[in-house]
Design goal:
By secondary structure, the protein is an alpha+beta fold. The chain has a single domain, classed as DD-peptidase/beta-lactamase superfamily (Beta-lactamase, 3-Layer(aba) Sandwich), CATH 3.40.710.10. The chain is 39% helix and 20% strand. It has a five-stranded antiparallel β-sheet with strand order 2-1-11-10-9, with helices on both faces. The protein has a two-stranded antiparallel sheet with strand order 3-6. A two-stranded antiparallel sheet has the order 4-5. A hairpin with a 5-residue loop joins strand 7 and strand 8. Helix 2 crosses helix 9, helix 3 runs antiparallel to helix 4 and helix 3 runs parallel beside helix 5. The longest helix has 28 residues.
């Protein structure tokens, strides 16, 4: 397959060959030094993401996922699939439904004050703390970009946790996701289960009705201040965000679910939804599927 991401090589070489700061350079102030260290950490993360993409792009391994599906969202035709009706735990792919319920039921500008109860789930950010008054929109971004578990929890508590879960399961029924059930809003509960066919319906609905949700998942420049006022970066956990053909989506991981993915790519001008469940390497699997589609 012809390498279609030359920009990855360009940036990787650029980062690797960044010149060292000479010892004779003017001494930095503590604030400048802290900012420089922060930028270096960001560059390291970018290099890691690019290396991961290149490595998995070149992988020759067979698809490891127990279930996967590729659907052309232009006409909802299935172009590739395996065990697409077999349910599995879906992990943080759950947050696509959480974000959808939030978008359709909470004004994005509405301010939510965080409490200790909201911040109990694992996977929280130092920029989300008790007493913080934050917009629903920024909580949705935190949930989708860095997969912060307390962000959808806060949204659910604001609306009423039981009500929020009812809305999630009701929406699944409305979308004919017959093999889908949600027991929490973050995906930490392995009892959140679905199959590839159902998740494809969800991401198709989002793509056609709320594309802003997918746009958020391409963002890798989202920051919020912590309790000291220091700006904290929310790192995008979907490593496909640098790829121009990536339209948007969500990834997830639990020991019971392995690696999961639900994303949309522009393949030869067509929006292709790819759903991967119970995978050992979702990134390599996604590239393998894209290769089979002639990408």
């Amino acid at each position: 397959m012809k390498l279609k991401f030359p920009f990855l090589l360009f940036f990787l070489l650029l980062f690797v060959h960044l010149p060292f700061i000479p010892e004779t350079a003017k001494a930095l102030s503590p604030v400048q030094e802290e900012k420089l260290i922060q930028q270096i950490e960001i560059l390291k993360q970018e290099v890691f993401v690019l290396k991961s993409l290149l490595l998995n792009l070149q992988s020759q391994e067979k698809i490891s996922a127990r279930a996967y599906l590729a659907v052309n969202l232009s006409d909802n035709s299935v172009v590739l699939g395996k065990n697409q009706n077999q349910p599995y735990s879906i992990a943080s792919v759950t947050k696509l439904m959480s974000a959808l319920i939030a978008v359709e039921n909470i004004d994005k500008g509405r301010t939510i004050t965080l409490t200790e109860q909201m911040l109990k789930p694992l996977g929280q950010s130092p920029a989300l703390f008790p007493g913080l008054a934050i917009s629903a929109e920024n909580l949705i971004k935190a949930a989708l970009i860095q997969s912060a578990n307390d962000a959808p929890e806060a949204l659910a508590y604001f609306l009423g946790k039981e009500k929020f879960l009812v809305l999630m399961n009701r929406k699944a029924k409305e979308l004919n996701m017959a093999n889908t059930v949600f027991y929490d809003v973050s995906g930490l509960n392995p009892a959140n289960r679905s199959n590839a066919a159902d998740i494809a319906k969800l991401i198709s609905y989002i793509y056609k009705n709320h594309p802003e949700i997918l746009s958020i998942t391409r963002d890798n420049n989202f920051w919020l201040p912590d309790q000291t006022g220091k700006m904290v970066k929310f790192y995008n956990v979907n490593n496909f965000y640098p790829v121009p053909e990536f339209i948007g989506g969500k990834t997830g991981y639990l020991a019971e679910a392995r690696q999961t993915l639900a994303s949309v790519f522009n393949v030869s001008g067509k929006p292709i939804a790819i759903v991967i469940l119970y995978s050992n390497n979702r990134q390599a699997d996604a590239f393998s599927i894209l290769k089979q589609l002639g990408y």
